[in-house]
Amino acid sequence: MQQGGKTVYGATVGILMLETQFPRIYGDMGNAMTWDFPVQYRVVPGATPDKVVRNSPTELIDNFIEAGRDLVRSGCDGITTNCGFLALIQDDIKQALGVPVATSSLMQVPMVQNLLPAGKRCGVITISKTSLTDEHLIAAGAPVDTPIVGTEGGRNLTTSILGDKLEIDFESCRLDMIDAGLEMVQSHPDVGAIVLECTNMVPYARDIRKVTGLPVFSIYSFIKWFHSGIMPRGFPLELDDPRW
Predict the structure, then answer these.
(1) Which of 25, 66, 102, 115 has the most CB atoms in a 10 Å sphere around its CB?
(2) CA 59, CA 228: separation in Å to the nearest integer?
(3) What is the full per-residue pLDDT of the chain (244 aa) written as tens digits?
(4) How far is CA 160 from CA 99, 129, 132, 136, 154, in A?
(5) Cα–Cα distances in Å, from 86 out to 15, 51, 238?
(6) How far is it, in rounded angstroms, from Cα 123 to Cα 16?
(7) Domains parsed from the chain with CATH numbers
(8) Strands 121-126 and 39-43
(9) What's the pTM?
(10) How far apart are CA 99 and CA 76, in angstroms?
């Protein structure tokens, strides 16, 4: 017998979105076609990219909790967000919502670090190195000496996203990401894998992999893993298999 109690079924991951107007291409977590499973979205009022990245998202905790609770009420069994800097409110959100919460791609850093051999470290590419503090890393469980490269000195990505522009030159963004990847391996030769902090960087993960030769993890890889625990894949028993 099917258990009831939800409004929406089959879309178990809920995404808390910043309040933005910039375009979201295929690969961006804010583009629903990026996912090969259904997701639900809620926009958090007042949570602009500039306010969350360059200021403190802790001022918006109540807004995130309210939107998260609405997602849970509509059937979500796990919640994520579309900004890595929201690691700062991970504990508040998970306690308030009562379901698994993955606020930030940065939460992958300790897991990726454990995959690497001795002498290798996990590096982070972020949309704003000047804004990414030890506090963010600690909240995500990442070492405070994690190598970090930012894109704020680049052509387009940081200014377009944090400036919430209506039009974005995505080819320039791609070049910014390639430059950041090259800077990472040149400045930190001990880096053995890269985590992308910003959720808008997902479309460029393969480019970074090509130019660095390193594994690249993003919010896409994180939430695919997250979803696989919330909705495990079923494997029918082949009881007539002659091997058994």
Answers:
(1) 102
(2) 32
(3) 667 777 788 889 999 999 999 999 999 999 999 999 999 999 999 999 999 999 889 999 999 999 999 999 999 999 999 999 999 999 999 999 999 999 999 999 999 999 999 999 999 999 999 999 999 999 999 999 999 999 999 999 999 999 999 999 999 999 999 999 999 999 999 999 999 999 999 999 999 999 999 999 999 999 999 999 999 999 887 767 666 5
(4) 33, 16, 18, 23, 11
(5) 12, 11, 44
(6) 26
(7) 13-104+224-230 (3.40.50.1860), 105-218 (3.40.50.1860)
(8) unpaired
(9) 0.93
(10) 9
Rounded CA gap, 118 and 51, in Å?
38
Closest CA to 81 of 112, 123, 44, 50: 44
CA dist 64 and 83 (Å) reads 12
**Structural tokens at position 41:** 């979205």
Tell me the three state secondary structure of residue 167. coil
Q: Cβ-count burial of 87 within 10 angstroms (0-12 exposed, 13-18 middle, 19+ buried)?
A: buried
Reading the block at residue 119, the tokens are 């002498």
The answer to whether residues 67 and 53 touch, using CB atoms and an 8 Å cutoff, is no
CB 220 within 8 A of CB 205: yes
> Residue 190: what are its φ and ψ, rounded to 5°?
-85, 0
Tokens of 60: 């918006």
